[in-house]
Design a protein that fits this description.
By secondary structure, the chain is of the alpha/beta class. The chain has seven helices and seven strands. Strand 4, helix 5 and strand 5 form a beta-alpha-beta unit. It is elongated and about 85 Å long. The N and C termini lie far apart (about 100 Å).
Length: about 200
């Protein structure tokens, strides 16, 4: 009887140790995966605040003065938008992602600085979610309360016509379809400069 109890205790100890090892391995894997994800995001964003750095410049495929590559993007609310159909209006094309902190910071100013400020004028704010699923963007909109139009670029087909790396990115496009200003990353000063550039383009007939 005593031997049986001892065996049972040993079995319990072995089960507890096995469970502890499994939990430790699971936690270590979780930390590693989350660390890699954060590291990848930080790597992509690290150079983005300064669009004059060599890395960002090299990753920019469409420069100021070039014609903006045409595309048709699926919109989150249904339907599509084709860039060339917006000729005659000033367009701010913005690439962003839900996981990107500077993207989220920039978008938090979009309603007031872009949508409301230029409402009723010949201007279109066109934010396009890079590499994001519809479900992810819808969940993000539900959480933040954003109601302005957003495009979806889940396979990055549109983004790759404009750049190879770094978000957020902004391409200001004039009425003729030419890119007049390019920026990468988010800074308050850059946002202010972008607002001024939009105003100047709208006033330019």
């Amino acid at each position: 009887m005593a031997r049986k109890r001892a065996n049972n205790r040993m079995l319990v100890i072995l089960l507890v140790l096995t469970a502890a090892v499994c939990i430790a391995l699971w936690y270590a894997d979780k930390v590693e995966r989350e660390g890699l994800a954060v590291g990848a995001a930080a790597t992509e964003q690290s150079a983005a605040p300064n669009d004059e750095t060599a890395e960002v410049t090299a990753a920019t495929l469409v420069r100021e003065g070039a014609e903006a590559p045409d595309f048709t993007v699926e919109m989150i609310g249904g339907g599509t938008t084709t860039l060339s159909d917006l000729r005659g209006k000033v367009v701010l094309l913005n690439f962003w992602a839900t996981w990107c902190p500077p993207c989220r910071e920039e978008l938090s100013h979009a309603q007031r600085q872009f949508v409301d400020r230029f409402a009723g004028r010949e201007f279109v704010f066109l934010p396009v979610a890079r590499g994001e699923t519809r479900a992810a963007v819808e969940a993000f909109r539900a959480k933040t309360g954003y109601a302005f139009a957003m495009g979806l670029d889940p396979d990055e087909t549109i983004y790759k016509r404009y750049a190879t790396r770094f978000i957020p990115r902004n391409f200001l496009i004039d009425r003729t379809g030419r890119v007049v200003k390019v920026s990468a990353g988010y800074e308050e000063e850059e946002l202010a400069a972008l607002v001024q550039a939009i105003e100047a383009e709208i006033q330019r007939k």
